[in-house]
Amino acid sequence: xxxxxxxxxxxxxxxxxxxxxxxxxxxxxxxxxxxxxxxxxxxxxxxxxxxxxxxxxxxxxxxxxxxxxxxxxxxxxxxxxxxxxxxxxxxxxxxxxxxxxxxxxxxxxxxxxxxxxxxxxxxxxxxxxxxxxxxxxxxxxxxxxxxxxxxxxxxxxxxxxxxxxxxxxxxxxxxxxxxxxxxxxxxxxxxxxxxxxxxxxxxxxxxxxxxxxxxxxxxxxxxxxxxxxx
Length: 230
Fold this sequence. Notes:
The chain contains five helices and ten strands; from the N terminus they run αββαββαββαβββαβ. The chain is of the alpha+beta class and about 230 residues long. The protein has a single domain, classed as Beta Barrel (Cyclophilin). An eight-stranded antiparallel beta barrel has the order 3-4-9-7-8-6-5-10. Strands 1-2 form a two-stranded antiparallel sheet. Helix 2 (about 60-70) crosses helix 3. The longest helix is centred in the first third of the chain and has 24 residues, at about 1-25.
């Protein structure tokens, strides 16, 4: 009788433990990625888990993520040409965020949705339902400003706009960015500069020259086809 009771208790505990584990896993997203094995020159398919990012864990996540993901160079392929950007190590959270979202393909098939003549081109927004679905899985979070690194809004820097959500600290939307087409020093101190264009300023100029509607949205959509780390 004691053995039977002990067995019941053991099974109940295991069941509770498994339920707890399942609950924890539900907060993770299993993603299949292809990794190149340098030794064998073959492609290995593996599954990795990413946490759902929100205001409670995003900064801690990027603090750890940036330690093992030191890439700085990204290539933005648009319907107007290619823009290459070097991200700054000094703004590590914003660099890590951009690298992470690039690797998660969160910018692919988005648009330059705001073009202000002789000022900026702003990208990352989209009405693509597949992109929206992907971003909902990645998370919903904002990034704090990091404006005291000595960078200025010179022509060709990449900076992060404030969220559409009104907030006193100008927290930034992680999925959007803007590139200055002209020196815009009145933005200094309010928005985080986290990189600069190293190639393709002529493409920035082409995008800035397109016709827009009254809301600054290009009359003919300018797509960000993909963003790559290189």
